[in-house]
Amino acid sequence: MKRTNLLGLALALAFAVLTTSGVYAINYSGCQNNEATFETLEEARLSGPAAVQNLESNEANHYVSHYVLDGYPEGTTFIYRSANLYGGRAAARLNTLIFVFSEQHFDDKEGAKAFLDELGVIDLVDEATGSVILVTPADGASFGQADQMNYYKLQTAVYAQKVNTTDPDGNPVSFCDAEYFGGYGYNYVIGIDGGATFLNEYVSTHLDFVSRIAGMLLINGKMEEVRKVAAQVPVYLVNAPEDVIARYQAANETDAYFATPDAISYFNQALPLQKVVVATAEKDIASYIQDAYYGMFIKAMRAPVIKRGLNSAATPYQGYSMDQAPLSLCERNAVLGGVTADGIHLIKTVDERFSDIRAFEGDEYLQTWFEYLPEEVLDGTAPEHSVPLWLANHGGGDDPRLFVDEIGLLALAGKERFAIVAPEAMYINYRRIPGGYNEGILPEVLHLLVEYMLDTYPALDPERVYMTGYSMGGGATLRGAAGSPKTFAAIVPMAPATYYPTEEQIAKFEECDLPIMFLTSYNDAAGYAPADGHINAGLQEQINFYLGFNEMETVDYDFETYPRIGIKVDSERYITLNGEYGNYTWFLNKDGVPMVGATVTQFLNHALYPEYANLAWDFAKHYSRNQETLEIEYDPYVR
């Protein structure tokens, strides 16, 4: 067995290079295995295609640099890439991206890199894993309106994660830039002097731009009186005029403040990420960057979950993948050096203990998983059987770490002090074979992974083991439950495809009940029929399965009488998530205990949304399973 603290110096050695056999569940990397590079944008466009071509899930595509960057002014933009960037599948979404806008001129790359080194941003992105993009004016002197189009070009390229299109001759192509040096949800922007004024006037004023930024540091920036900030954004202001401060306060709807000798933080009490920090102490620029990065940036991320092209007007690439402004502003719990600030340790485990569980000889098996453990579990200070455990199943094309972060489990783990295990299970689910498909091994192996965790860490509580997963991971959740329902106290399959358990699996539910809450959204075809305005036939069928498993009466659906859910339920709730999207939740009870439920969020696409973890935890935390009787115990008073 190999167990490795992630993101430290040993990262490159811990990750194995992908094999060429197509068996990606084995020796999973999620890493580009690159050395650190510093290039002009022109050089990066030439280097990118070959660098990403052979990463997992990319092999069949033909890569080019994004056409939007054609004609970009040469010699104005420089790119630093840290070693061992995340990459392959959707792992590149884990890379941090820091933009720096400065009107300082650089004759060569060496001068540009020295400038970034002096600011300390290269050290920051090395620690986090990601890229820095240094942008200088197109005319070599000062930023203006012409630079706004260049900003649009960069934004379009760095967000185009896994975008496939055609070249002018109609041949299929994919864009490399987002994976080679781009970002996704951890994108932060620094503006210095004229760079800050440019960001104030030409970026913060447009919803499609500012709502993609998870944090801004603006030093000595001005702003014309006629302009307004278009959306909430965490911002750290240095030497800002009062009217600029007021405009960011209005955008963030701040209604409270906290003052120290160094700064005043204005924030929204209900949504504290909506924050304006105003520096009151004189420091050098590198110190301000440190303050903004650790005090603000790494605590926030953006999540694209809404309809594509909704607010990008008639731009040339409207509606492409990730063109989903406004992006949701969500809490982040950054892993730096293998651990979060609140003491959740990330450990990659590579182990052969399950190698004999395969669908076919030579087929994939569970070899790799990622453990998220509170430090009190690792240092032995947590009492025995005191810490809940979540089994978290990633979706198709995703990385396990990506799922844990973007679904909101990592931020929640820091607050609630639970552990998480996230298996790399991309290719051990069902797959097509001649004449049909093979179901795979998840029903046989997922509960064994739970047993491994409980045996390895005595602080974990066998009575409070929960399971969730999104999309393909939602299907994995249903499969894992069918394989061993008694292992789990509650499950939350998110956007799952329909799963039909075998007769043998159905029989296992005769010895125990299993609380379940299905999760879907308006534009999620896996669980909802948007044209009909209610849950779809597949989810209807799954609800009836679990009503039967829990010895409750199955139902005939009536959507005229009971909109959206089609059932007379025992309880119904409507709330607003993150101050932005409405959410309905319904439950059916057994002996007064909610046992089968569904939750539907308005307007969202089939996408990972950090608020989903809160919905899952608010449901699951009330349940435990007595290890002697296997009965479910329900505590409605768990906070």
Describe this structure as you would to a colleague:
With 639 residues, this protein is of the alpha/beta class. The chain has two domains: 9-330; 333-634, Alpha/Beta hydrolase fold, catalytic domain (Rossmann fold). The chain is built from 18 helices and 34 strands. A hairpin with a 2-residue loop joins strand 17 (335-336) and strand 18. The longest helix is centred in the last third of the chain and has 15 residues, at 442-456. 52% of the residues are buried.
Kindly summarize this structure in a few lines.
The chain is α/β, with parallel strands linked by helices and 639 residues long.
Break the fold down into its secondary structure elements and pairings.
Layout: E1 2-5, H1 11-14, E2 37-40, H2 41-53, E3 63-64, E4 77-81, E5 96-102, H3 109-119, H4 121-128, E6 130-135, H5 146-159, E7 164-166, E8 172-175, H6 177-180, E9 187-192, H7 194-203, H8 207-210, E10 215-219, E11 235-238, H9 242-252, E12 256-259, E13 263-267, E14 275-279, H10 285-295, E15 300-303, E16 328-331, E17 335-336, E18 339-340, E19 344-350, E20 368-374, H11 375-378, E21 387-393, H12 400-406, H13 409-416, E22 419-423, E23 431-433, E24 436-438, H14 442-456, E25 460-470, H15 472-483, E26 490-494, H16 503-508, E27 516-523, E28 528-529, E29 534-535, H17 537-549, E30 571-577, E31 581-590, E32 593-605, H18 611-620, E33 623-625, E34 632-634
Parallel strand pairs: 3-8, 5-6, 5-9, 9-10, 10-11, 11-14, 21-22, 21-25, 25-26, 26-27, 27-32
Antiparallel strand pairs: 1-19, 2-4, 4-6, 7-8, 12-13, 13-14, 15-16, 17-18, 19-20, 20-22, 23-24, 28-29, 30-31, 31-32, 33-34
Helix pairs in contact: 14-15
